[in-house]
Protein: Polysaccharide deacetylase
Organism: Marinospirillum alkaliphilum DSM 21637
Amino acid sequence: MSRLFLLLILLTGFVPLSKLQANQPAEVADRFHASILMYHHISSRTPPSTSTSPQRFREHLDLLERDGFQVWPLDRVVQHLQRRRPMPDRVAVITFDDGYISVYENALPLLKERGLPFTIFVNAQPINERHPLHMSWAQLKEAKEAGGIIANHTLTHPHMIRKEEGETDEQWLERLTHEIVENQREIEKHLGETPRYLAYPYGEYTPEIQELVRRLGYVGFGQQSGPASPFTGMTAIPRYAANGIFSNPTTLRTKLHAVPFPLLSEEPVSTVLAGRERRPTLTLTLAPGDYRLRQLACYGPDAQVLPVRTRTLENGNVVVTVNSDRDLSTGRPRYNCTAPHATENRFFWFSRQWLLPHPDGTWYDF
């Protein structure tokens, strides 16, 4: 696999799977992963970066059907991950963040027509305030009756990693607890019992937030890309963005067929970079697997090729060290690592989202 070819994945989303025929039957093997898709708006009239057109969304559903994917409800996948039960090789989950009205108008009819399950992560405040861009409780009830899970996205959609001025650590965690617990209470007041699933707003979390989520009894979902698997833990399950530049069906197909690296550990544990650190080093420890180690490559923002060093330990585990040779920009940049499968026409996939404040310590505005 050439370096140029992998760059195309990140820059344009173009990755042909020429050897993987769409009509091949899905193998049922002892695999423990699923591909969770994340959408926001399903519209051609909303911000492009967070939107998927209705036509493109239909193409995605056609792709899932054509490639033999089983679309499972999120709770079924979570139960399999928690119990480490094998799943069929091709399992996908459809999720929507924010509960936008375009999901009700443009996605729900297609999902109902095909009998597909889905999950909508919602914030109660804009619903209670009857914001025109958001679904109402009555519309969410209709979505639930059509096979949807309505789950938690916090009450007001805050940047959870940010402390307010003068706020202590204890006060910060109390505020986040209120965001989660009160939102769950609102959902259950209007729609009945629902699983304790939390999608982090903006995909932002810290080890302290993950511990809070675990202590409150929730399963957490991020916005970093990669297959959902036991290797990723239950407080930061990855999802593949399927909106904006990531809605290209060819790119999506490659990601849907990707498998997780057998990840044993990743350092640093926190994704938040402190002080003036702009060139973070990521260290991954991998168990032996079917990945082609010599072709493991990692990329930064704008498909920047990152320096990668690998070291095989006596027990067969592999230590992968990745860093950037130039400063990362403020915001939520990522390191994406891939490696071809040794015997199948697919990739292993891992992504780390970093959270970088401005050099003066203030946070970005988006």
Q: What stands out?
A: The longest helix spans residues 169-191. Confidence is low (pLDDT under 50) at residues 8-30. DSSP finds nine helices and 18 strands in the chain.
